[in-house]
Amino acid sequence: MHHERTSSAEPDELVDVLDERHLRTDTVDAWVARLNRIGIPAGRIGSIADAIDLAERLGLEPTAEVGEAPKQVRNPITFSRTPITTYGAPPALGEHNDAVRRWLEEEGAR
Hints:
GO molecular function: transferase activity
Radius of gyration: 24 Å
Pfam families: CoA_transf_3
InterPro entries: CoA-Trfase_fam_III, CoA-Trfase_III_dom3_sf, CoA-Trfase_III_dom_1_sf
Order of helices and strands: HHHHEEH
Protein name: CoA transferase
Keywords: Transferase
Number of strands: 2
């Protein structure tokens, strides 16, 4: 059911009130621990680099070497009978433009 009062509330005001009266009373880590203890899933919001660092600390090997290109994020799914042994770098900017244009022309001719 749609409630006009709740949907029109100013979210910035709510954030300000929570932040000022409650959230700033302790650290992020303390709040995460407190919420997790009472069964509320919570965690620090991080960057992609933070996620990769955490995965590395957990021994999950989140990246793959791809030759001269920067490390790439590895597929997290692994198969014991058919492991992935090679990885490729993403295409360079514009690398496939001509092939895509040819394909589009062929599709348009059908």
